[in-house]
Amino acid sequence: MAFPMPLPHFLELLNLLPLSLVVWTGHMIVFHAVGLGFAWCDRTGAFQRFKLRDNDRLAYADFLPRVLFNQIFILLPAMWLCERFGIAFVGAPHIGIGFAFAALVLMTIGHDVIQYGAHRGLLHNPRFRWLGHNLHHSTRASSSISACYMTVPDFFLTIVCPYLIPLILIGGGTSDLRFQLLVASLGAVGGLYEHSGYDFAAAIKKATASRWSRLLHHIPPSLISSHAHGEHHRRARVSFSDGFGSPGLCDLLFRTRWDLR
Ligand SMILES: [Zn+2]
Ligand SMILES: [Zn+2]
After folding, report:
1. Residues in Cβ contact with 103 at an 8 Å cutoff, skipping those fewer than 6 apart
2. Which ligand ends up closest to the CA of 118?
3. What is the pLDDT of residue 206?
C-alpha cells in the first residue's frame, strides 16, 4: 500500500511550519507515549521488580490537565518566542555529529547549573514559598507524568529555563530538526524516568558487568539511576540537580548529593 503522502512532500510541509512548533509536537508525542508506557507498567505490574517507590495516589488522567496546561501555554509560547526573536531554532539546517555532541555536553552542564540554581536557590527558599514548589513535592516521584505536575512559576523555572537558556547560550542549536528533536526528547525521557519510580540502573550495570564494569563505576549514579530525584522528593534537602541524565555537577560541588549529605 502506498504511503498516504510521499515522505519528501511531508518534510516540505514541515518546513512551512515554525520549527519550534514541530519540535514541541515531537516532544509531546515522545513525552506522552513514554509517559503512558510507564502508566501501563504501573497498571499491569510489568517491570514491578524495578519499581522502587509506591505508586502516587493520583492517576495519569488526574495529573494530565495541569501538565497539558504547562506544556501548551508555557512551554510552546516560550519556544515559539525564542524562534520569533531569532535566539533559538534558527541557523544552519544541518549540523555534524561533532558539533551536536559538543552542543549536547555544553547544554547538559548549562541545564544542571540553571536547574540547580532555580531549584535550590528559589524554589526551596522559604521566602519564595509562594512559587508553589510544594505542589510538585506533593507527589512521590512515582508517576512519570508528575515530572511536569507543578505550578506555572515552578514549570517555567525548572523545565523551560534549564532547557531554553543553555540552548540560547550555545547559539540557538541551529535549525537542524534531528538535533532539536533529540534535545527535546532526551529532556522528556529523562524527566519521565526520574519521576517514574522505576530504577533500571542496577539491572543495566548487571547486564553489562562483564564488559563495561570498570567504565560504569566511573559514571555518576545520577546518570543512569532515578534514585537521586526520588531521594529529593523524600528528603527535600538533598539532590537538587535533575536526576537521570544529569551530571549532577552542582550537587557534587555543593555537597548536596543524597549520598554525600
Ligand atoms: Zn520531581
Ligand atoms: Zn524540590
Report:
1. 95, 170, 173, 179
2. 2
3. 62
pLDDT at res. 5: 61
Q: What is the pLDDT of residues 143-187, one digit of tens each?
A: 999 999 999 999 999 999 999 999 999 999 999 999 999 999 999
Please report, as a single letter, which amino acid is at residue 114: I
Kindly list the domain boundaries of the chain, sorted by start residue. 18-199+217-253
| CA–centroid distance, residue 187 to ligand 2 (Å) | 17
Going from the Cα of 124 to the center of ligand 2, the distance in angstroms, rounded, reads: 6
Confidence of residue 1 (pLDDT cuts 50, 70, 90): very low
Report the candidate in 131, 185, 155, 10 with the shortest Cα–Cα distance to residue 77.
155
Strand partners, 3: none
**Distance in Å, CA 140 to ligand 1 centroid:** 8
Label residue 39 left, alpha or beta by phi (over 0 means left) and psi (-120 to 50 means alpha): alpha
Helix, strand or coil, per DSSP, at residue 53: coil
The model's confidence at residue 68, banded by pLDDT at 50, 70 and 90, is very high
Collect all residues with Cβ–Cβ distance below 8 Å to 139 and sequence separation of at least 6.
56, 58, 146, 149, 195, 233
**How many CB atoms are closer than 10 A to CB 139?**
19
Q: CA-CA distance, 73 to 164, in Å (whole number)?
A: 15
pLDDT computed for residue 14 by the predictor? 76
Query: At a CB cut-off of 8 Å and minimum separation 6, what does 81 contact?
Result: none
| E strand or H helix at 19 | helix 19-44
Q: Are 249 and 222 in contact (CB under 8 A)?
A: no
What pLDDT is stored for residue 71 in this prediction? 98
Cell matching residue 50: 524495578
How far is residue 82's CA from residue 163's CA, in Å, rounded to a whole number? 12
User: What does the alpha-carbon distance between residue 247 and residue 157 come to, in Å, rounded to a whole number?
Assistant: 19
